[in-house]
């Protein structure tokens, strides 16, 4: 009973593939710019991935999950000011408003790599899968690079500094 059904499903999926691809396949509405994972030395359990996500679709989207071959778990994180300190917090989703670019950068939104399988060394590459609310997904390959400031000149500086000063806690705690 099982085999014929799977064969049928296979044939069916071949027929509907072009449509399925559009409905819940690759997130071709998304442009990813400048992705990178922060290099960390051996023994560090966690790191983070940064990038710019541009929604080129005609409707709003949201990033709802992520995964990577480099870590056990990948969480969506942001930084929030709490009691005068910047703290990382897990969030359920990252909104991607239509026509906008959302920056994941040190001191702000990021993908948290938790439980690294190995040290992340500059020059290496890791795979990162992104899942979106509408069922589309995107796989990207991000280079591992040393910490670097976001590309924006002025407004980001304060938040970047806040993250740097938080570095020790970042390492010990989270
Ligand atoms: Cu984090």
UniProtKB/TrEMBL annotation:
Listed Basic and acidic residues bias regions: 154-174
Region spans: Disordered: 152-174
Keyword tags: Signal
Domain of life: Bacteria
Keyword Signal on entry: yes
KW Cell division (keyword) present: no
Record's signal peptide: 1-23
Identification of the protein by name: Copper chaperone PCu(A)C
Lineage: Bacteria, Pseudomonadati, Pseudomonadota, Gammaproteobacteria, Chromatiales
